[in-house]
Amino acid sequence: MPDQVANPPLILVVDDEPDFLEIFGVKLRAEGFRVETAGNGAEALKKIKALKPSLVLMDVKMPVMDGATAVLKLREDPDQEIKRIKVAFLTSLGDPRLEMPEINRKFSEEFGAQGYLKKTDDLNLLCAKIRELLQAS
Question: How many domains does the chain have?
C-alpha cells in the first residue's frame, strides 16, 4: 500500500469527550492515519464538507447535534461524494445483553453507517476494525 504511506487516509473522529479525542487521535496517528476531530455533529458536518475524510467515526450521544442526526443529514447531502463518505458509530454503551451487537448493527444500517465500534475495546482492535472499514467497498 505505497499510496497509503504517501497519502494516508484521513479519519474524522467526532466525540464530545476531549480525553477520548486526544487518546484516540494519538493512537490513530501512530498507526499512520491523518486525524481531524470535531466535538459534535454540527461541527462534524462542516468538517466533512471541507475535508472529505476517508472515514468518520461518529459518537452517538453528543450535545448540539447527536451522531444519528448528523449521519442522517450527511446522507441527505446533495453532493454525491459527501453522501458516500463512510461512517462508523462510536458507542460506549457496555450493555451485557447478547442481542446488543445485532441491535447496534441494525441501528448503524438504518442510519446509513458502515457499522459501529465500541470505545471500550482495545485500541489495537479498534485500529484493525478501522482498517477493515477503509478497505470495504
Answer: 1
